[in-house]
Amino acid sequence: MSSLTDILIQAAIAVVPLGVAYLAFRSATDANRKTQQTALLQVERQAELERSKVDADAFLRAKTIYEDALTQMERQLNRMQSQADQVSADLTTEQTSSTAMRDQIRRLQAQIRALERTVVTLRTQLLAAGLAPAPASETTGPYQLRHPLQE
Questions:
Q1: 53, 93, 134, 137: which has the fewest C-beta neighbours closer than 10 Å?
Q2: What is the pTM of this model?
Q3: Rounded distance, CA 12 to CA 18, Å?
């Protein structure tokens, strides 16, 4: 029995280094895995940092383009507002001139009607006095004067 006990003791003693070796192997494997995971996380963080830098650069470029476009639109809006103000002022001037011309045309038309009445009255007086009025071919102006008796 002593030999069986010796064999068991020797086996137990042999198992201890194997157990220690196995635990060392597991620890090394775990440490290696953690080191790889840490390295992978660092690579991912670095990649994310690079993406963030690229995104930040793209954002700054887009912001610059947007601000330039906004500035150009504001300038164009100011020019258009200035042109609209000028057109409005021109329209007011034209409306004032148009009103003045209409008033002048009304006054001239009233004067023409008064002159036509005077001509008719004078023709009637000439005929009543026995005098012949001027022939129609001698009248001037765009209006053909008609004798009231010739109608």
A1: 137
A2: 0.44
A3: 10
